[in-house]
Write a structure and sequence with these properties.
The chain has five helices and no strands. It is mainly α and about 160 residues long. The chain has a single domain, classed as Four Helix Bundle (Hemerythrin (Met), subunit A), CATH 1.20.120.450. The mean pLDDT is about 95.
Length: about 160
């Protein structure tokens, strides 16, 4: 495998890596609906808020990478975090998870796409490269996966 292909494969794998930590699927699996919106004492966010924040941020980064007409209209932090601690219903929870997974696969396809120069600056960005954005998604998701695990532990539903 050529070095470029190996790099691309490593990046795609990095986005769903479970070698060093739990993966998204295992962290969100089996959360009882009644616990999705609880904020444990000493924590800032519920499981719902963390999952939905991950979805929103990842979707925004993906859009930035692939949409030549991308305009940053979201306000930090207000537009990146859901206001309500709980999803409206199970369909909202499941929909957020499905959208997160769909966009994660799209980020993996971006990383694997040989027509995209990973080191090139994104044309409508300031100085961001595609490589930076892939790494940003992986880093951001890993950070919040750890928070999800901590909240699950505090709720008594992990390990």
């Amino acid at each position: 495998m050529a070095a470029n292909e190996e790099l691309r494969q490593q990046l795609a794998d990095f986005l769903t890596w479970n070698s060093a930590h739990a993966d998204f699927d295992s962290v969100v699996k089996g959360v009882p609906p009644r616990l999705r919106g609880l904020v444990p004492k000493g924590f800032a966010h519920s499981l719902w808020q963390l999952v939905e924040h991950m979805r929103i941020a990842q979707a925004d980064i993906l859009d930035f990478c692939v949409n030549p007409r991308y305009e940053h209209t979201m306000k930090w932090p207000d537009d990146y975090w859901p206001k309500a601690p709980a999803p409206k219903n199970s369909a909202a929870w499941n929909g957020s998870i499905a959208a997160f997974k769909r966009d994660l696969k799209a980020m993996q396809r971006l990383a694997m796409n040989p027509r995209i120069d990973l080191f090139a600056k994104i044309p409508h960005g300031s100085s961001q490269t595609y490589l930076r954005e892939v790494l940003l998604v992986g880093d951001h998701n890993a950070h919040h996966l750890a928070q999800l695990i901590d909240v699950r532990r505090a709720l008594g539903i992990w390990g």
